[in-house]
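[step 3/7] inverse_fold.run input=structure_tokens len=168
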């Protein structure tokens, strides 16, 4: 099973100035609706609707992940719009929505997720090995490392969102 190795950082603010200065070169922007179908211990199943904000192209994915922290197993496959609609229609959950900006910084690809329903911005950097991930020294503007902080995992944020909407 393919392995995803990444570190996540809590950005204090969106790095607009770094984009203007050319320190961050934006490559793409997507709107993502992410709905979890099943969560069990360190495993998750989710679906996504991903819209390219420049072209309007939409794709749908189904993903299985296992693990927590720096590296996790991940299998992601494309699905049809019809299957996505059936799955989310049956599930009736509120998706976690975010805007993902993919950019290049210091010859590395970074992904910046700006969440709609909650007030935080996360920057992710993917690596080829755990050793490379551990030895990476982030710049100060990345903010605190939240790679192993479960409070900031997407599935935790999504679960909290589901609970808060049921309470209102």
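[step 3/7] decode complete -> sequence:
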């Amino acid at each position: 099973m393919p392995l995803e190795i990444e570190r996540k950082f809590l950005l204090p603010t969106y790095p607009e100035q770094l984009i203007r200065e050319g320190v961050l070169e934006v490559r793409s922007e997507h709107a993502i609706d992410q709905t979890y179908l099943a969560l069990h211990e360190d495993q998750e199943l989710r679906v996504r609707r991903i819209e390219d904000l420049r072209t309007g192209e939409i794709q749908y994915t189904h993903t299985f992940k296992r693990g927590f922290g720096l590296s996790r197993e991940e299998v992601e496959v494309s699905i049809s719009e019809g299957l996505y609609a059936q799955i989310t229609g049956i599930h009736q959950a509120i998706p976690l929505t975010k805007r993902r900006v993919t950019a290049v910084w210091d010859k590395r690809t970074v992904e910046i997720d700006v969440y709609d329903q909650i007030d935080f911005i996360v920057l992710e950097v993917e690596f080829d090995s755990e050793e490379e991930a551990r030895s990476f020294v982030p710049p100060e503007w990345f903010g605190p490392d939240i790679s192993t902080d479960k409070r900031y995992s997407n599935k935790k944020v999504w679960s909290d969102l589901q609970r808060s909407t049921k309470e209102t």
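[step 4/7] annotate
The first strand starts at residue 3 and ends at 11.
The chain has one domain: 3-167.
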